[in-house]
Design a protein that fits this description.
- The longest helix is centred in the N-terminal third of the chain and has 20 residues.
- By secondary structure, the protein is mainly α.
- The chain is elongated and about 70 Å long.
- The protein has two domains: 165 residues, no CATH class; 167 residues.
- The structure holds zinc ion (ZN).
- The site of zinc ion (ZN) has 6 residues, from helix 11.
Length: 364
Amino acid sequence: MLGSDENWILRWFMAAPATLMVLLCVLRTGFGASSAEHSYSTKLNKFPVFNFDDDLKYLCISAVSPNTTKATLYALNVWRYWCMTKGLRDYMDITKIPAVKLNELLEDFYITVKKTDGSDFLATSLHTIRRGLDRILKNAGVGFSISSSTFNSSTKKLKEKLRVLSKAGMSGARSRNVVYFSFSDEEEMWRTGCLGDSSPEALLSTVVKYNSQYLNMRTLQEHADLMFGDIELLKDSQNRPFFARTDRVKRENRVSANKVCYGQIYHEHSKGHKLCPYCLLYKYMYVHRPPSQMEAKSPFYLTARKEVSGMGNVWYEEQRMGLRSLRGVVPKLAKKVKLERCENFTFVSFTQASRKCGPLNSFQ
Ligand SMILES: [Zn+2]
């Protein structure tokens, strides 16, 4: 249905949505503020930081809410970046554009605005950007709003774009009807080989399941953002090996040097090594991956090969798994064990076995 959109979905996937961290970056480096201690968000993306040595940044400051300030600065940044990439430098000051011309620009903006890697924003991010731009205009006292009837034609374009994003699962809204697998559902998945290491797809599904359960990865975004180096193989004080999600790669720009662990995976052989989360993750990360995809910044989830025969140990392509495929992993498992309303099953549908752990001070 959206076959021709596969490219932008993939492009989106190259860096994943972005809201807060961008703002943090803007505030920290471009804006010189002291927001480095903000809690880490998985909604991160690099976005170019412009020098805010001009009056526009003052239009972004909200006396009421620092979050509003951040969101407004973000919108300004996105607008400027779009203008630069479109060769529209004359329009970078959005407060100096007459309404009719701005409406015309916005028609194109809503449809073509992208993150710096060429990927799309989530629908919720587009809303945030639009509200931010409107606040700048309001604070500048231009006397019109981009949600008014003068802007009907651009608003229509925005709605078109939002529809496309929603269809692709990029609404950004949280799912409301979460349902859970039963133990017998999961047993059935193991028994029929949908989970386990009998095929590239099964192994990948298993890793998705265990990452969701043990590494506290609950959203598509968290899975999509995961990089190879974010999961580390460590040893505890008793010299037992375990995998930890430390988000090392994602966090490397942070000020804090404390190592944080979002979850751990140890050997668990009480039901046999065939079900062991550690053994299976090890296979996925070190046995069946193409060596080129073992860099810290390699995407964690790779496209599974269809044919195992004659391809040796390498089970995955040198290519990031598509966003829609990743999103479909859990519903697909549900479908295979013949559950109804498969689409309601998500990463949090697996039996919850996770536990949070604190700073890993005892590890190097
Ligand atoms: Zn094991």
